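hey m, so remember when u said the tokens were messed up on ur end? i reran from scratch. heres the input so u can diff it against urs
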Amino acid sequence: MNQIALIGGLIVMMAATNAFGEEEAVNWVKVTDSAGWRPRDSQGEVVYSDKMWIFGGWFNSFVPAPRDVWFSSDGKNWEMVTNTAGWKSSDIPMTLVFKDKMWFMGGWYNGRLPGHAATHEVWWSTDGIKWEQAKNAGWSPRMGAGAVVFKNRMWILGGTEDYLFAEDDKHLKNDVWSSSDGQQWELATSCAGWSPRALHQAVVLNDKIWILGGGNYKPNMQVLNDVWCSEDGIHWAKVLEQAPWKARIWFSAVVYRDRMWVLGGSSHGNELIVDVWYSKDGENWSELKSNVTWSPRHEHSAFVFKDKMWIAGGHAKPLSGEVWSLYIPRGWFGDE
């Protein structure tokens, strides 16, 4: 009986340590080495109709960007629904699900080829095959902006008008726009509190919009790790000048388990990053340590789907066609 009691006590102690001390590692699972789509980065992505979707992306700057659309219900098996979607500016577009439609907005066209440009086109679809074009948006042509759904409206935050050929930083934006239908866009502010930027991330948590990091690629690479929030898209509060995670662009962010997550990206000197950080309040951040994880990369897709976090593709030197998932048990943080 004493031995049984001792063993039982040790099990209880171990469980408590795992739950409250976060000692038990959670590991990423590689779902596939090679999804059906050609390895890429900079694609759009959404979760819609109980599937993960990816749209277009980038192969290199001297070939037209892909215009294909793929979906998967398990992350391993992917199906292409069209090879030539209506939109064509598929390098770092802004993509959302809003009012039971998939939305594809902005983006960069034609890399470094003749005719390259950003756009302010707005497209929507309910099946990924047929795409309808709404009016061109009121915001200027751009790519790499933040995009969220907040207070029953779509929001576009910042971005860059000239991704590869700008001679100064005047092309960077810190304006904020919103729309209730994708047709009419209203300017919330022409100059938000955060500095003009692109290649950042925006998420919604605790009834606020959050702006995370970002910066610029050309003419001079800039990387930031500041954190801002707003309850209305107009008035912005700086939460952190420098978060504990490395300053970065081309990263992903999601909301999972009532926390915002920052995943991968590129930092100073175009250093690829593999770290994963999370926060409940934007001020206090913790790094998730895993024994098994994906390789450093940027411009990968990130999803929250079937109670897991997922990443797909990205530039990992070379471009990747991998898909990974991570499940964190409810109660793992010990504060639910």
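this time it looks ok to me. Confidence is low (pLDDT under 50) at residues 1-22. if urs says something different then somethings off w ur setup not the seq
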